[in-house]
Design brief:
Layout lengths: L5 E5 L4 H11 L4 E7 L14 E5 L9 H15 L3 E5 L16 E5 L17 H10 L2 E4 L2 H10 L8 E4 L21 E5 L8 H14 L4 E5 L5 H7 L6 E4 L5 H10 L2 E4 L8 H9 L3 E3 L2
Parallel strand pairs: 1-2, 1-4, 2-3, 4-5, 5-6, 6-7, 8-9, 8-11, 9-10, 11-12
């Protein structure tokens, strides 16, 4: 019987994507997830074939990460994987690349280039994304256009990693369209982390035009942000616009997508969208920028 590949999955965040990707991967390889304390919530949603090891990374800004990375290296060496698969967004863990046994490294770049941000969402610096890609045997992206972006970005910059497209599949954790007829009013939903690239200002500028064309339309903008007063101020006095500037729990997410008639993504920059994939699960049509 042919031995299955052993893959160790290292990540911080990207929980909904990790659940879907790891559960699918576990059908083909022996998958081991190194799960940090803040991501422990996702363990019950993983396929039962995924082995789980709990780790405790310090905050990213802490110098104690030096000791953590050493411990992480010992854990990975004990597992003796064929592949270590990391998600973009890691920082200290990159110190292990090429230094853990004979394992090959694969990186999923959710975004090849950092989002333009108002500093509201922590992102790994661009050099960290580039370093992870250059040190990996393979790079996974979510769209064909991103395959070209990676190849162009690293052309003439040393060894070229193998680049493959693995589409970002639907996110099922919050629920799905299962044949029920859910009454949908004239509700337009804009969901997810509020920051500069999301184009919320564009949506609000269009809101009066939409209200003129569609009487009784309701626009709900929901998501976590550190600039709550800014976004609430943008919509101040606008009829039919509701700002929920906070993180929504699972039940609230489910209710939002069940009520929505249309999902809008007025992004000014993006390369993939988990929000879109939640909408796909619920069967909500989407209107998006190109």
């Amino acid at each position: 019987m042919e031995r299955r590949l052993r893959v160790v999955y290292v990540f911080r965040g990207y929980g909904d994507y990790v659940i879907e990707a790891l559960s699918a991967l576990s059908r083909h390889v022996d998958a081991v997830a190194l799960v940090s304390a803040e991501d422990w919530w996702l363990v019950p949603f993983l396929d039962k074939r995924v082995s789980v090891v709990k780790v405790a990374p310090p905050r990213v800004r802490s110098a104690r990460n030096v000791g953590y990375v050493a411990r992480l290296g010992r854990i990975i060496n004990a597992i003796a994987p064929d592949i270590v698969h990391i998600q973009s967004g890691l920082l200290w863990e990159l110190l292990l690349m090429g230094r853990v046994g004979s394992a090959r490294w694969v990186t999923t770049l959710h975004d090849v280039v950092r989002h333009p941000t108002g500093g509201l969402l922590w992102q790994a610096p661009q050099w960290a994304l580039d370093y992870a890609a250059r040190r990996s045997s393979g790079v996974l992206v979510h769209a064909e256009c991103l395959v070209s972006t990676v190849r162009q970005r690293f052309r003439g910059r040393g060894r070229q990693p193998l680049v493959a497209k693995v589409p970002h599949g639907p996110i099922w954790r919050y629920g799905k369209a299962d044949g029920r007829v859910v009454p949908r009013g004239r509700t337009v939903l804009c969901f997810g982390q509020m920051d500069r690239w999301k184009g919320i200002e564009i949506l609000l500028a269009a809101a009066p035009l939409l209200a003129e064309k569609v009487p009784g339309v309701r626009i709900v903008i929901a998501g976590g942000t550190r600039a709550r007063s800014y976004y609430e101020g943008l919509a101040s006095g606008m009829r039919g616009v509701e700002i929920r500037a906070r993180r929504q729990d699972d039940a609230e997410v489910r209710a939002l997508f069940e009520e929505a008639e249309v999902l809008v993504l007025p992004y000014v920059e993006a390369s993939q969208s988990g929000v879109l994939q939640v909408g796909v699960a619920f069967g909500v049509p989407a209107v998006v920028t190109d």
